[in-house]
Amino acid sequence: NGTLIISGNTYMPDYTAKTAPWFAQVDEIKAIVIEDGIKSIGKYAFSYLDKATTVEIADTVTKIAPYAFYGAGLKEVTIPDSVTSIGWRAFEYCKKITVINLPPSVREVGDYAFGQINSLRTLHLPDSLEKIPIGMAHNAHQLTRVALPPKVRVLPLDVFASCIALKEVILPPHLERIERGVFWECRKLPQITLPATMKYIG
């Protein structure tokens, strides 16, 4: 029926691009179900599954590895309140996702994790997140507003670069550094209120 089901009581292995055993059925996979018992999603596990529009992730999963869903056709994703780590480029080029809501359990997000998601309209970041990754949401062309977690002190390179619809950014109260390219090409952003703690703007 086009549903890929991952089951077991284990950590998924890592793969390289397009080498997961189910990639041979790439054109037939329309949905992904990761069942209870799976503890992590491996590197490149579901990358390039461009016909897969939905994924269900069990609340036994604690880690999503780098490139796990890179270039997949997902339209929506719910990250359970068990995941603590999301690897770099994990959802990059998932161009059809409109909402990403990170639960309070997430404490680490890798560089470019949500980059190049052209349809992304809503990005919710939990207060538990203390470090914003490089290029986190670059080229999110539909993103209009974002509130950054209160403990963040540095905005690294290109976090919101080319977010051309961005109109409002709420900065954390103790922010100290804004690195180069953070708001590059954010042409609709009228102004930003900087906290008194600012030490550097790139």
Query: What is the beta-strand fraction?
Result: 15-25%
Q: H/E order of the elements?
A: EEEEEEEEEEEEEE
Question: Quick one: biggest sheet?
Answer: 4 strands, parallel
Mean pLDDT: 97
Q: How many separate helices?
A: 0
Which residues sit in consecutive blocks of at least 5 with pLDDT less than 50? none
**Fraction in helix:** under 10%
N/C terminus separation: 51 Å
Name the structural class.
Answer: mainly beta
The coarse overall form would be elongated
Spatial arrangement of strands, main beta sheet: 3-5-6-8
Mind telling me the C-alpha Rg? Answer: 17 Å
Instruction: Give me the count of strands.
Output: 14
Layout of helices and strands, plus pairs?
Layout: E1 3-6, E2 31-34, E3 40-41, E4 54-57, E5 63-64, E6 85-86, E7 99-101, E8 108-109, E9 122-124, E10 145-147, E11 154-155, E12 168-170, E13 177-178, E14 200-201
Parallel strand pairs: 1-2, 2-4, 3-5, 5-6, 6-8, 7-9, 10-12, 11-13, 13-14
Q: Can you walk through the features of this model?
A:
- By secondary structure, the chain is an all-beta fold.
- It has strands at about 5, 30-35, 40, 55, 65, 85, 100, 110, 120-125, 145, 155, 170, 175-180, 200.
Primary descriptors:
mainly beta; 14 strands; 202 residues
How would you briefly describe this protein structure?
By secondary structure, this protein is mostly beta strands. Helices cover 0% and strands 19% of the residues. It starts with a strand and ends with a strand.
